[in-house]
Write a structure and sequence with these properties.
homodimer; Annexin_repeat (chains A, B); calcium/phospholipid-binding (chains A, B); 331 residues; Annexin V, domain 1; 4 domains; Annexin (chains A, B); calcium (chains A, B)
Chain lengths: 331, 331
Amino acid sequence: MATLKVPAQIPSPEDDSEQLRKAFQGWGTDEGLIVKILSHRNSAQRELIRAAYASAHGEDLLTSLDKELSSDFERIVMLWTLGPAERDALLAHEATKKKVTSPNNFILMEIACTRSPLELFKTKQAYQARYKRSIEEDVAYHTSGDFRRLLVPLVSTFRYVGDDVNTTLAKTEAKILHEKIADKAYGDEELIRILTTRSKTQLNATLNHYNNEYGNSITKGAPMKTYLKCFSFRVITDDPDNEYLKLLRSTIKCFIFPEKYFEKVLRLAINKMGTDEWALTRVVTTRAEVDLQRIADEYQRRNSVPLDIAVSNDTSGDYKDMLLALLGREE
Amino acid sequence: MATLKVPAQIPSPEDDSEQLRKAFQGWGTDEGLIVKILSHRNSAQRELIRAAYASAHGEDLLTSLDKELSSDFERIVMLWTLGPAERDALLAHEATKKKVTSPNNFILMEIACTRSPLELFKTKQAYQARYKRSIEEDVAYHTSGDFRRLLVPLVSTFRYVGDDVNTTLAKTEAKILHEKIADKAYGDEELIRILTTRSKTQLNATLNHYNNEYGNSITKGAPMKTYLKCFSFRVITDDPDNEYLKLLRSTIKCFIFPEKYFEKVLRLAINKMGTDEWALTRVVTTRAEVDLQRIADEYQRRNSVPLDIAVSNDTSGDYKDMLLALLGREE
């Protein structure tokens, strides 16, 4: 469930484009107007506005926004205005620009695992159009060791989408996962093969079987809330500070419970001393048209405070207004 | 350069479809008519004929062909009638059905390396539509060791297509390749990363640099015809019977000189005791609309006999007629 709210009647793209142009002119920029328009248009509508703006003013709307806005407000408006594939391409490129460090690994994994295979493919096309390289070569070049062995196939595979489940296979592969995890062979080729090539439906069946078959022995004596934890329990508790194991656990979480994964990213971003605006902006802009309502529900359940209130207490100014508008809070 | 010859004036898809229907009826099948029509239509035209046939007779043309034809002639007509993506999906699926053995590894590599990235992507879509699984999971499941480490990323990566070359990178990566080959580390992660993720243009620049920088020392005392061999020399001569090294050499060949790769497949298929019809049919049907003329030129240069003559001497009947028609030999 998306949080994006689009009015039943909206102006034409040309009218929206002209209103935005007005917001850029005169004494100072009218940030309120920018929020009012852009935060209530879906990606197809924003694309039409960009086209209308470019044809009327000979300049990309993003270029104008870049000139007029600054800091966190600029970033959220820019990221939001981009279409999903272009935005993901930009986020992935930022993540691969330097030697990949922890948060960047998570961003790459997040893009690879929470988007549909076709969305990921469109991101690859947008990445190539913009950066004249493939996402695969950049990820492979900037990673090494277990991180590379996991991340490169995650971004490369075009997974099957469908409800078909092979039960025999699910049992066999649950057994393989169990053996590898028992041996603490977290970077093992077979474990990575299963996680990086199987369809999400098949993976879900495999992890369900894992839980049924091996759940008890693993959870014995340990508090356990969800069956997800049954699988990832030994993976994570083995060494809570190991970055690769954190990434592996998050990968599984992204496949099975993406809303729990995103809830945690938001929780850490908001609870942090000084708020992690980049993480907050990333999750809100990439999920507002997809499943931000479900993430917000999960947030409230886990933190006993509504997400919009938490965001509102932690941010300010135009940036806060844009966040709340994308979160669907009525003005 | 394709060898396929399409007449300037062709009948409508409906007329072609009716002629084919007639060929299936009455006393025996009129194989000559099937060859006459199908071997002179391009893939878009064949698709229209299939659609017209299905709508007129409520049966897929391929099903009718399957009923009417047999053995090598059936296979060549069926493979040819399929569009490129469906055909490659079928060939790849055959290659992954059992534990992958030598020729199957080569077929998978050939599809991954000699098609354009977008063609490979369309094959992945066709594969999923037909088999309800991804090509990536099937290849990963049916391979192991160095073969898996090379083949899975080869079929997975969506490579960049473009003329952009990073010269500094070409030098760095030529050095890496040289070090790995000097160490006989043919399954090394870095060597595989370079071959499986870089664009073909970038790889070509890297191999050119390899030749310029390391060519002399490697070729010293060895007969050397092409710069391709400069690179692959140590890879191959190290152990000529090692299947993985053969695959690695062929991979490089497919990137740089696909016509040389295909010429050799044809040469071995024709020279074999009893002809390898499956290889012959595969190369002719997959390349007739692409570069079979260039492959035929290479064949003549290497064997001092025109390809159509060699094929003609080695095959017979309707199968031979279809091969020669696809080779562009005028009746």
